[in-house]
Design brief:
The chain is of the alpha/beta class and about 200 residues long. It is about 45% helix and about 10% strand. It contains eight helices and six strands.
Length: about 200
């Protein structure tokens, strides 16, 4: 335990996701040893992000304006919506440069253990976006874990009467991986999602 403000800083840093007590202590001492201008720049960036960043009124991605850059882009395909759990998932998909449609950020996944139900997510907003009939395909890109699968199944049931093409991202073996290290679920998914080879 440290005294006063140093311990307060360590405690606050330790509340960040993925930062344990040791990491919080290292970051705190890095800040203590940093130049005052560097610390002011960090503090300014933190206050600016809280003051200026909001969530897009259409898809709920992070944005500095009322709508995010994806929703404002007229070149994006309005007939396809990719549903993701968090804004960081949008960034991951955008890095592939494979998807040219729009997004919908749920704000999490269904997790009864953590007390997160369908009403805690932005599912009503998604259904409102689908109501006008302009969307023809819904790609469900939730995480391939228990919560993500439960969310995907729930969404598929919710939109089943809308006549949409509902797809799920394929999952299976990572490129560069070895079969012997794959767990049974991953290997099973790889078999389910196998495709024809073009020769």
């Amino acid at each position: 335990m440290y005294e006063g403000v140093v311990q307060d800083l360590i405690d606050e840093l330790g509340r960040l996701p993925g930062v344990g007590p040791k990491s919080a202590q290292r970051i705190a001492f890095h800040i203590l040893q940093a130049e005052p201008t560097d610390v002011r720049r960090l503090a300014h960036a933190l206050t600016e992000v809280k003051a200026k960043v909001r969530f897009c009124v259409v898809c709920h991605n992070v944005a500095q304006d009322e709508q995010c850059r994806v929703c404002l882009d007229p070149r994006r395909d309005r007939t396809v919506i990719c549903v993701v759990e968090e804004p960081k998932d949008v960034v991951a998909i955008e890095r592939t440069r494979e998807f040219r449609g729009r997004y919908h950020v749920l704000g999490g996944a269904i997790s009864p253990i953590e007390g997160v139900g369908p009403d805690d997510l932005r599912i009503r907003e998604l259904l409102a976006r689908l109501a006008d009939g302009g969307v023809t395909e819904l790609i469900i890109a939730t995480d391939p874990n228990l919560e993500g699968e439960a969310t995907a199944t729930y969404l598929a049931r919710m939109v089943s009467s809308l006549g949409l093409k509902v797809t799920r991202l394929a999952s299976g073996l990572p490129v560069g991986g070895d079969l012997e290290y794959a767990d049974e679920v991953t290997l099973g998914r790889a078999f389910e999602g196998r495709r024809l080879l073009d020769v």
